């Protein structure tokens, strides 16, 4: 895979099933147009392949109504505009827009009557984000907006922006009435998240910060508001930052949540599946061994149990949890899909279960669980499989990772690529960066050191208060295991990574620079002292991981050791990154240049922290070109 192959990638996303209708949205980067394109595809249950079902600029998040007659989805009708909620008959026809909001609409949820939809939308204050100051007036340009009066620490989020002047509000709409207007159920004084209808269709459940966001908090609680309107009612005080509720027929509720004490953040904590039966809470899954992956979707209730996606040693597996479970460990949960793969989304209708699954050398296929592959959206570009690596760290701890090998006998130059997080993971799924570098002739080593997710909660928490200790040991051990292979050139090794991976790149360059020819540090945390006050999460993240003392924070900051870095060093950042702000890159770049290091800096305008995953396609392609040029200069 070459950088210009980016626009050849076809990646399936969210899937929905009802009867014999299976719909999945498909996404393809268009580098020339600098946009993402893709429609809904219908997948044949008999294995007959797939056909394009909608043809707009971009359609996503299909949701088939309970009676199977209608499909609601989000549509981008014009490049640069936010997605709006649409509906169309499931047997085909014209789609009809249900919303026209300045900031677009969120993913829809059908009511049991197959008529009403619930969704959220960020509604701006008058005079902001395209909303006029007065009805019928013109909206001021961004530079003419009034100043923001900020009184909270949680006032912005990376890749979203400022939030307290555009809280997410809860809406319902009659999808079958052409003249119906969306009905607002919350007033915008707090953000309503993750709506779900009650089983009787009389009310909508949603999540909001504790006490409806009266003050900064790390807990999301479950609330209820009747479909006819009224004041929200607290249903469940959650054990942590609750997510994605699902109503049960008996009036109970399922939801995901880590568990943490009030006033503390959910740092490196596994996400459990919880059940509220109207009286009390039960944790259905074991806190140490089961970590639910909310990115794959909400839990799905079937007659045989609850379907959840679980992070496990680089895989995202579809598992079944009994409704009467109590702290069930991973080994006791039936594995349905995703073994040595990643489940990206899943859905069920009765006992029919479909899932979107990806592997290192396949961008995604739709599987009928128990019935094999229905269709394969795999790229026409040749992709390389990953090879599993295992070993033992100096303290006896088992380590795990992968290497993606290029074609040929070698010896191949090596790129050590460290993931972000740190409570994230490299995995068995498709990773475009590894494929691009392998196609260019590099062996790509992908470690999951202590601090990563998917290996138990204790594994994830092992680096709290100890960045640059056992995580370094694990990373270098995985690298050494890879370098035992004769086709890898131990004399030509580069190190790279983003976010926590960028932090680790800077750290390794300072403390183990003799092992590498050059470094590529991207969207990194380099100095915890300034990160605390400049990052959207810095006000709690720094203390939670490093501790509140400045001495400890500086001891764990790569910038403290910048004078030890001598190898060629590329600093890469996005101009609008609010997770790891640009000053983190600038401080490191200036320190290195003043020390006489061969340092360069690459800054992407208009991008946030997620550039490599969801940034503008043209910037993603340009970044790949710069990466390959850098390593061609230093690992040739």
From TrEMBL:
GO terms for molecular function: aminopeptidase activity; serine-type endopeptidase activity. Keywords: Aminopeptidase, Hydrolase, Protease, Serine protease. GO terms for biological process: proteolysis. The keyword Protease applies. InterPro entries: 6-blade_b-propeller_TolB-like, AB_hydrolase_fold, Peptidase_S9_cat, WD40. The keyword Transport does not apply. It comes from the Bacteria. Residues 428-635 form the Peptidase S9 prolyl oligopeptidase catalytic domain. Gene3D superfamilies: alpha/beta hydrolase, TolB, C-terminal domain. This is Dipeptidyl aminopeptidase/acylaminoacyl peptidase. It comes from Saccharothrix carnea. The lineage of its organism: Bacteria, Bacillati, Actinomycetota, Actinomycetes, Pseudonocardiales.
């Amino acid at each position: 895979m070459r950088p210009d192959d980016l626009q050849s990638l076809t990646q399936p996303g969210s899937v929905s099933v009802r009867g014999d209708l299976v719909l999945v949205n498909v996404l393809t980067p268009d580098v020339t147009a600098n946009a993402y394109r893709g429609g809904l595809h219908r997948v044949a249950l008999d294995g007959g392949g797939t056909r394009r079902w909608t043809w707009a600029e971009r359609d996503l998040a299909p949701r088939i109504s309970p009676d199977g007659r209608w499909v609601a989805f989000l549509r981008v009708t014009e490049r640069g505009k936010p997605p709006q909620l649409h509906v169309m008959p499931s047997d085909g026809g014209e789609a009809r827009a249900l919303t026209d909001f300045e900031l677009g609409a969120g993913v829809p949820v059908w009511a049991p009557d197959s008529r009403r939809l619930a969704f959220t939308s960020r509604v701006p204050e008058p005079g902001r984000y395209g909303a006029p100051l007065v009805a019928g007036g013109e909206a001021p340009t961004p530079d003419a907006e009034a100043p923001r009066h900020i009184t909270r620490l949680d006032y912005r989020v990376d890749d979203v922006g400022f939030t307290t002047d555009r809280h997410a509000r809860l809406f319902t709409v009659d999808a079958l009435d052409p003249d119906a207007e969306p009905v607002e159920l919350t007033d915008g004084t707090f953000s309503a998240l993750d709506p779900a209808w009650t089983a009787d269709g009389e009310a909508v459940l949603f999540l909001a910060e504790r006490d409806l966001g009266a003050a900064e908090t790390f807990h999301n609680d479950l609330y209820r508001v009747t479909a006819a309107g009224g004041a929200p009612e607290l249903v469940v005080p959650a054990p942590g930052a609750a997510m994605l509720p699902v109503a049960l027929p008996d009036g109970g509720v399922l939801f995901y949540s880590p568990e943490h004490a009030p006033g503390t953040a959910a740092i490196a904590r596994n996400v459990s599946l919880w059940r509220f039966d109207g009286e009390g809470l039960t944790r259905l899954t074991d806190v140490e061994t089961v970590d639910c992956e909310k990115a794959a979707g909400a839990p799905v209730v079937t007659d045989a149990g609850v379907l959840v996606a679980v992070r496990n040693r680089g895989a995202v597996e579809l598992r079944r949890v009994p409704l009467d479970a109590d702290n069930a460990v991973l080994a006791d949960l039936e594995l349905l899909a995703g073994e040595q793969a990643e489940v990206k989304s899943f859905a069920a209708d009765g006992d029919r279960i479909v899932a979107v699954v990806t592997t290192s050398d396949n961008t995604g296929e739709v599987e009928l669980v128990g019935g094999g592959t229905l269709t394969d959206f795999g790229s026409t570009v040749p992709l390389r499989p990953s090879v599993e690596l295992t070993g033992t760290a100096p303290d006896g701890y088992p380590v795990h990772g992968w290497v993606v090998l290029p074609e040929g006998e070698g010896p191949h130059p090596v790129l050590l690529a460290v993931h972000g997080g740190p409570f994230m993971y490299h995995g068995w799924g498709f990773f475009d960066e590894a494929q691009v570098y392998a196609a260019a002739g590099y062996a790509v080593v992908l470690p999951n050191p202590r601090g990563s997710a998917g290996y138990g909660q204790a594994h994830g928490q092992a680096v709290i208060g100890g960045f640059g200790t056992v995580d370094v040991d694990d990373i270098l051990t995985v690298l050494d295991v890879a370098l035992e292979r004769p086709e890898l050139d131990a004399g030509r090794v580069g190190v790279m990574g983003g976010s926590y991976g960028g932090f680790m790149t800077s750290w390794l360059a300072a403390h183990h620079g003799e092992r590498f020819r050059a470094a590529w540090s991207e969207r990194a945390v380099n100095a915890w002292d300034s990160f605390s006050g400049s990052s959207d999460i810095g006000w709690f993240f720094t203390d939670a991981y490093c501790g509140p003392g400045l001495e400890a924070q500086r001891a764990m900051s790569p910038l403290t050791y910048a004078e030890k870095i001598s190898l060629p060093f590329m600093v890469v950042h996005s101009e609008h990154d609010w997770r790891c702000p640009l000053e983190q890159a600038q401080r490191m770049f200036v320190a290195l240049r003043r020390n006489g290091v061969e340092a360069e800096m690459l800054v992407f305008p208009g991008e946030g922290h997620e550039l490599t995953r969801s940034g503008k396609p043209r910037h993603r392609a340009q970044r790949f070109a710069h990466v390959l040029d850098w390593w061609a200069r230093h690992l040739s």
